[in-house]
Design goal:
heterodimer; A: 4 helices; B: 2 domains; three-stranded antiparallel beta sheet; globular
Chain lengths: 61, 312
């Protein structure tokens, strides 16, 4: 999840640099990704994995 | 046995690549420098929306219909909303770029392959008067699809129930996509997971700390801890962009639009992407997507999952 948030941030900042006139549309998901990344970063890889596994292991299906 | 396929590179050259299909676990070609360069080149071109809009003429010539058209926001292709006199509402996607042919062939075939699937809503592809899913006409390619009516998830209140229904619908979408075999799953897509480690070359465009630092740490940890294991999970055709703009709350259930980034990916990719967009509240576990994650059994993502399995 953190890597995908980071991929979104990287690609869209690059494309906004290429097409500044379209930056608002290109970056429509960036603020959300930056906020999400700031929330998940303190978890680290191990505790993040544990939290995801805990959520999916409690599947209601 | 699938025949060898090739990846289209930036300059029009073709590079040999491994076959991609039901017997393929991963897509090693998508991790190559050539693939990354081709995928980057595709997104480095300006969208063709400044070109004359031929939508109305194409609709009449190729589909035998007339109606009002309105251009929608789109990064790559031209996307127009079409309102027909009989009340039907459509989306027409067109492009004059050569690489769009493969993208449209993939999108149209993937969407058509979802017809009749249960548990989610997807557009339907409208064939041309001659029965083709995708047209190429006087330098323009494209396809026509129905338009889903509803509100995008980014406009909805993210209740636990909505998140669970979204995750459940996403699971059923992936089950259905696992059974389709669209063409051009190997076309260069910068959002392909194989490109991620190379994306750090764009770090020069990031704002200063903390964003740049957090991105650097996340990508380094991905390369060290996650990427070495992605061959252990199930791979299939995925949507690859279930963002809150591409997931819809409709009267018929949760819907999915915009299959333009779809490709051969880890099955867990769609869930991870959707979850990554829902991390909003630091007081909640993982920031909020737990109800989404709970909608998919963990076993669903591993290679031992049988295609004919269902948890209904």
């Amino acid at each position: 999840m953190r890597a995908r948030q980071s991929a979104l941030i990287l690609v869209n900042y690059w494309r906004s640099h290429l097409f500044p006139a379209d930056a608002q549309y290109i970056k429509k998901n960036v603020a959300r990704a930056e906020h999400g990344l700031s929330i998940l970063t303190p978890l680290g890889a191990a505790s993040g994995e544990a939290a995801v596994l805990a959520a999916m292991s409690s599947s209601q299906l | 046995m699938l025949s060898a396929i090739q990846v289209r590179a930036a300059g029009g050259r073709r590079h040999a690549a491994a076959p991609v299909g039901p017997d393929q676990v991963t897509d090693p070609a998508a991790s190559s420098e050539a693939y990354f360069r081709a995928a980057s080149a595709t997104l480095a071109l300006r969208a063709g929306s400044s070109e004359p809009d031929m939508s109305a003429a194409l609709l009449e010539r190729l589909y035998g219909v007339t109606g009002s058209v309105a251009t929608l926001s789109s990064e790559i292709e031209r996307t127009v909303a079409v309102d027909l006199p009989d009340g039907r509402r459509m989306i027409l996607k067109t492009s004059t770029r050569s690489e769009a042919v493969d993208s449209f062939r993939f999108q149209a075939a993937a969407i058509a392959g979802l017809r009749g699937a249960a548990g989610f809503v997807a557009p339907e592809v409208i064939p041309t008067s001659s029965g083709a899913l995708v047209f190429e006409h006087e330098g323009v390619c494209g396809y026509l699809q129905t338009r889903l009516e509803g509100i995008a998830v980014h406009q909805a209140q993210l209740t636990p129930d909505l998140l669970f229904r979204t995750g459940s619908a996403l699971a059923r979408l992936d089950l259905a996509l696992d059974r389709v075999s669209p063409p051009a799953t190997d076309r260069p897509i910068l959002w392909h997971i194989g490109c991620w480690p190379r994306l750090m070359e764009f770090a020069q465009y990031l704002p200063s700390a903390p964003v740049a630092e957090q991105v650097g740490v996340a990508m380094a940890e991905y390369v060290e801890f996650v990427e070495p294991h992605i061959s252990n999970v199930a791979w299939q055709v995925t949507h690859n962009d279930p963002s809150p703009f591409n997931m819809m709350v409709t009267g018929q259930g949760m819907g999915f639009i915009d299959f333009g980034d779809g490709c051969w990916s880890p099955r867990i990719q769609d869930l991870a992407i959707a979850a990554s967009h829902i991390v909003k509240d630091p007081t909640l576990p993982l920031g909020g997507p737990n109800n989404l994650l709970q909608a998919m059994p963990l076993s669903f993502h591993f290679r031992r999952w049988k295609r004919d399995c269902s948890w209904d």
